[in-house]
Amino acid sequence: MLLSGIVLFYYFSQIRGNVFYSHESNGVADKNNTDIQINYVLLDGTNTCNRTCIKGEPPVLCKYHFDVEQYHSLSKACYDCPYNLNDCFRKDCIPGDGSKRGIVTINRQLPGPTIQVCQNDMVVVDVRNKMGSESTTMHWHGQHQKDTPYMDGVPFVTQCPILPHDTFRYTFRATQAGTHFWHSHIGMQRADGAYGPLIVKVPEEEDPHSPIYDYDLADHVMVIIDWDTKMSMETFLSHHHNDADNKPPTLLINGFGRFRDFQAEENRTVYMPTARFRVEKGYRYRFRVINAGFLNCPIEMSIDNHTITVISTDGANIKPIEATSLVTYAGERFDFVMNADQDRALYWIRFKGLMDCDERFTKAFQTAVLEYDGLNTTEEDYPEGNVDYDNAHNDGLQVNSLNRGMESNKSFISMPHLESLQGWDDSLAEKPDFQYYIAYDFYKLDNDEFHRRPLYGFFNFTNVNMQLLTPQFNHISMEMPSFPLLSQRNEISDGMFCNKETMNKTDCMDLHCQCHHGIHIPLNAIVELIFVDEGFAYDANHPMHLHGYNFRVVAMERMGTNVTVEEVQKRDEMGLIERNLLAPPLKDTVTVPDGGYTIVRFKASNPGYWFLHCHLEFHAEIGMAMIVQVGEKEDMLPVPQDFPKCGNYLPDPLAAPSEVNRSSGSGRIKTKLVFVISLVSLMCQLNLIQYY
Ligand SMILES: *[C@@H]1O[C@H](CO)[C@@H](O)[C@H](O)[C@H]1NC(C)=O
Ligand SMILES: *[C@@H]1O[C@H](CO)[C@@H](O)[C@H](O)[C@H]1NC(C)=O
Ligand SMILES: *[C@@H]1O[C@H](CO)[C@@H](O)[C@H](O)[C@H]1NC(C)=O
Ligand SMILES: *[C@@H]1O[C@H](CO)[C@@H](O)[C@H](O)[C@H]1NC(C)=O
Ligand SMILES: *[C@@H]1O[C@H](CO)[C@@H](O)[C@H](O)[C@H]1NC(C)=O
Ligand SMILES: *[C@@H]1O[C@H](CO)[C@@H](O)[C@H](O)[C@H]1NC(C)=O
Ligand SMILES: *[C@@H]1O[C@H](CO)[C@@H](O)[C@H](O)[C@H]1NC(C)=O
Ligand SMILES: *[C@@H]1O[C@H](CO)[C@@H](O)[C@H](O)[C@H]1NC(C)=O
Ligand SMILES: *[C@@H]1O[C@H](CO)[C@@H](O)[C@H](O)[C@H]1NC(C)=O
Ligand SMILES: *[C@@H]1O[C@H](CO)[C@@H](O)[C@H](O)[C@H]1NC(C)=O
Ligand SMILES: [Cu+2]
Fold first, then answer.
1. Closest ligand 4 atom, CA of 384?
2. Integer distance in angstroms from the first to the last C-alpha of the chain?
3. Which atom of ligand 4 is nearest to the CA of 304?
4. Relative to the alpha carbon of 534, which ligand is closest?
5. Which of 60, 113, 287, 524 is the most buried (most CB within 10 A)?
6. What is the pLDDT of residues 404-458, one digit of tens each?
């Protein structure tokens, strides 16, 4: 892969002292950051931070440059792709699935550049917004930002959006080892290509799984996304404001997809290239899977003639489990080991889209190729047999199955049954300090964004495709604040947040309630969140992602098609909910069975304002999200003094000009006025302005 991009070379230049923002702020105690005040070596991240991690070696500072651009797949950079397959691998060529469409890229790569560092390295990413009219932010999915909560990249929660032409320097420590990813956290940019791997490695001695694999190669990272044939904003708008659907037709694996065929000379059919994963017979390989998906399309993956041994999820190690297939949901990551112990051959890797991608809708699937060494094959050689949607599945034990819970049987295993290698901690205490139900579904509401009664209210339509159901947490749609909560926390007013305790549920079941949905959790409380997917409307699936933490997944069950919080509560009181409080897996993104619940636990030890949301972009963007405030404002780290600010500008229109503060440049205004007047008179003289 071409990973050069635009990179600033600070190769081996020693830098000393305070590369980090000094933590001085309005009366908030200075926190000791002595542990990160080391003399880092500033490296060009793309080439030199990608290294073997050695125990005892000091961390380094890795610098990357991200140019966020609106771009195009199968652009002129692709010349004769796919008729000449070599052209598809040219620099700046994004072959995609063969659709020519607008995309959003980082350094004209899709997926974007890989950030690969060792644990505790400092990562510095200059994100330059080269889009003319859209703002952006970047989120480092899986990193907890404990030292730098204001680097979490959530617009209006931790920072202001980065304006067009501006550059924002993210600086954070890669504390969470494992397979993660970075992605834009604004609008539909991730859906259109603004995502890439973030791999944090550890020394071999610190990896409990190192004895069971031989290689952990950059080439074996598998980034999956569901993919559309047009800009996803187009799909979003036509689905939300008209009768079009929101189902992704295909998938991309590392930016490649065989979706269309192309007719070449002599009636020869050619395809876009597929992702290829090369292995040498006799060795065991660690693969890292990232689901960057944006729509309701869980993806089942399997490799023909091989089993996979799943060893970690969302960066946290689990006891290895051998399986045939793995289901991933948007935002999740899994690492597995595969043993190249079969005949030297080409094998299909099958990716099957579920839910909105299944046989009822688009039958979206994709393939990649597992290629053994010594075959003398080209990009045009494929494994035997054709893959279509109906045979995109391999039978056998499945990990993380769709809409299944701990009622697991021999054919599938659900998340709480995986065993964390981190053992027990006090988040798994018998009773939590703070328990909170978050129930959701799609509701038939006159959501003012999409249905305006009496003009075009929800019930004005009989055609269900014209009825937009609103996904909400606890009957509330999140309205994002006008300024970032964490970095401008002094502007937060009392009573600014709403939640099910402050709202009248009866009202919110009939009317569309939209406000700054937030809950407040005491610092260091042991928290239990119970997600209830009521399941009345549709068969849906919402992956839940919490920023700033990973949580234990202690229970999961599918109860039926229609479920209420009261029923789950009753079940719990009767002792019918089985919680795994021994060593359940640690995750930051988890599925909830439709018509069921998922229960997670964490210790609220990371103060801040953290976003909790459905990881499907269309849902999060229309309010299936909330704020989790952990601790008091004083508990949170202060932001750097010169951190960018934003917000409304609403001066009093009745205030006399004299009341406007003179200090801030009235002189300059006068000069400008004189300049404008003389410019206008000059233009009049030159007849550049016409009067009508
Ligand atoms: C920071 O650490 C130094 C040395 O360990 C200690 O003397 C000092 O009191 C600490 N300051 C704060 C604010 O904790
Ligand atoms: C890391 O370096 C290896 C060897 O130089 C290269 O093959 C690989 O692509 C690099 N990986 C990344 C993530 O840059
Ligand atoms: C291509 O296909 C067309 C229609 O099926 C057929 O008439 C023609 O002979 C084919 N050409 C070649 C070169 O095979
Ligand atoms: C894969 O397994 C199938 C079924 O067991 C077998 O028929 C086939 O020959 C195997 N493929 C290869 C390339 O070994
Ligand atoms: C590899 O394949 C090419 C074309 O198919 C052929 O010309 C060449 O001789 C082959 N090389 C070996 C070592 O088999
Ligand atoms: C496990 O449960 C599923 C769904 O209820 C069922 O289809 C399957 O046959 C069961 N498998 C076994 C081995 O019991
Ligand atoms: C929509 O429904 C409302 C009643 O809820 C009705 O008053 C209104 O006339 C309807 N509008 C149209 C355009 O049918
Ligand atoms: C909630 O609203 C309903 C209908 O508007 C009203 O009857 C009820 O008293 C309200 N409940 C509370 C607790 O305010
Ligand atoms: C679930 O609720 C839906 C919508 O209210 C209703 O149409 C359906 O009959 C219910 N299903 C069951 C099994 O109760
Ligand atoms: C004007 O200045 C005064 C005193 O410096 C300050 O208190 C006030 O908030 C300022 N007003 C505006 C609109 O900036
Ligand atoms: Cu959702």
1. 13
2. 60
3. 1
4. 9
5. 287
6. 998 767 799 999 999 999 999 999 999 999 999 999 999 999 999 999 999 999 9
